[in-house]
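Justification of computing resources. Each target in the renewal requires a structure prediction run like the one illustrated here; the chain below, 832 residues long, is used simply to show the kind of job we budget for.
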Amino acid sequence: MRFHLGIAALSLLCVVTGSAQAPGNAVVEPRGVINAITRQPAPSVVAQGSLIEIRGLNLGPAAGATATERPLPATLADTEVLINNRPAPLFSVAPGRVIAQVPRETPGGLVPVAVRRNGATSRPALIRVANIVPGIRTVADRGFGQVAGATAGRTFTFRATGLGPTDPVLANGDTSTDAVPRQPVRVHVGGVKVEPVVKGSASNVGEFDVSIEVPESARPGDLIILEAGNQIANRATWQQSAGLQSAFLRLPPGTPTLTAISGSDLRAGYLVANGARNADGCFPGVLLDILGNKSASVSDCLTSAFPNVPSPMVASLNGVALGALVGPPQGDAQNGISSKVAVFHPTGETPLTVELPSPAAFLGSSPGGNFAAILPGETPQVALVDSVTGEVQINPGGGQIALPGVGGGGGGAILNLANLRIDLGGGLDKILSAPVNMGQGRISLVVGNNQDSPTQAKLATINLQGEVQETADYPEGWTPLIMPVAPQGPGGGGAGGPGGAPGQFQAFQRLSTFFDAQTRSFFVLSRKMDDSGHGVAVFGPAGARVVTLPEGWFIASCTVNAQILTIETARRIVVAGSNNKERTFQQVCGALGFIVLDLDGEPTQARAVPLPGEGQINATARATDLNDFLLASNTSGFTVFALDGVTLTAYRLDLPQGVTAVGNIAPIPDMELAVAPARRGTTGAFGDAGFVVFDLLNIETRQLLLPDGVATAQQVGVLPATRKLVARGTLTGNAGSRFLIYDLTNGDILMPENPADVAFVGNAPMAPPGGGGQLPGPGPGPGPGPGPAPGGGQGAPQTPPMMRVNNKANSIEAITFDANRRQNGALLILVP
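Resulting structure tokens:
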């Protein structure tokens, strides 16, 4: 096995939690309530009427019990489950595990789940309840991998949950084959749409039987994508893949120098690759259907109202089509640039040209696998474009449709952030915070009398037209905590971008705020007027107050981008804490721990959780939130500290032997893992030691090693359906590049061979000294998380990587290059 095990750092969470309660009483783990079908770790989401799994201690009798009657009982073997303080139907109970149904009348949002046994009730844990949360039952109930089902000829029947309200309405704990979902259910297999027959299960409470005709083109290992209410279920495969498969397509003659690729959302290997925008505002392009072994130059002028975008293409959400506005552009983003849309669909031999009633300024995706064009005007409109027929509907569903931007709601007005001006009088005319959507067409922000060090401030609530609706005075003696501006010039760009002066919108980001919809409270990082202390100002229904920090603690305020992180499973917010109140920018802004504030109740003081061993984290490099675990590199990048936001335990995750630092930390929530490129020296490239996997479930680190002949690797993406990490490895001596596919469950690695005449995948590297390379070198790998540890650096700006991982098709797609760094084809890899 190609991984290195680290050292466990903590005891089991349930044992720690349970030790405070009397022996024999039921104990629910703080993270112990999850969706029983999708297996999404806490904070998990489940639909009304679906099943949850509850983990803990002493939840049921030693022998266990399973309900046989219908409707399911509310009490089983002296065990009850209370969801939002109401009894829930029980499917099975055992000492460490209970399966229960969420009552259909449970309100949406975070709700408490507790187990009552022997007259005592456990402490509750939280789960989020929603109207529709589709889920597919998989083999061995793992939540990923192969879909569990039965085949009869070409008909495949499987079970799904969370499809929303039904007609007729199902009673709690009961089944009925007459019940069908009110919302449409869409299913694709391998990117091919099929028509499902959906009805309530005859035997399984909270589940539906879904029958489909598997398309002739389907391959074992193709993903089944089920969508309900514009949400897709957990990704899983039809049958088990026979192994790694790949296909290669040569680029057609006359292909321009490519700079970007755009791929279908669900169809593997269906791409439009384009070159740079020309003087006419057109992006030259080529259509590539790798599985269909077809390619063609795009004759239309593909365009966008935004000159700096790498590609004009839009993929239909949860669909297979690609679309773009057709130019040359006439006009601008304010008035529209084109009244034509080109739609590329795998079933069509040529692109479909759609005529709009007036010029559009923007083309985006729309629910149902279609496109939405924004038509500017005195009253902006939305034109919905059917991706198959080309039919156009204006503002479908009646009424005006809110356009993208801050606000939302049913109004047609748009809040223009770039031109927003607010004057509250008395010199209060400086917008200090980013606007926050409060719902119902109301937006809140902080306004003060100075952009850097305000002495007066108020919270203002405005409507979508920018008109002030109400204000709230700042608490006496307190003022907003404005973060510093980074030095301008090379290597230290200001808030407005590298080397540039910060604009108004960028200045918004220097004050961190948070809105809690449940308590209708607005939180603002704040300081005392005399700089003697820090706190959090809370504007709520009961008025304004300040929650002060513990003595000697301050908010880490030597960075531009101070974060307010949320702990959903415990209803908390967290900021990095320091013993220094300095507000002068530092490239490495050290923090000694975390400051925690509970959202519920009336706390008068926040809590400080110091890092173990007098450790420090770099507050400038943004922390990673992974299922309410917060991960952050220390100030030298040599180790990673974590905070369990539920138990408020801070601990360190030491790097494996031979690894000196890590770069970007990218979370993998489905597995409670995070991955970062590893470095083995002090000056080498991140990725020259492979990757470090931070395992939050087992509280350990392990190393994914590079295969022989590979010098460095960069992460490209993750495939949750099969638990694979995809990376691109650069060969020793920069002799080429290949994809690396790591199995995150066991550390095994696949290294697919490049096709003949292909030396590089994804991007051509920089030419060797004296050479004549075609394109700049490989761009940085995608993925969230903080930047590299200090001293790592990202180098010069790079071209966008011409590769992608499609986690809705379990595939890798990339443009390829020969040994002379000339583009020559497109590669598709279907990952098992």
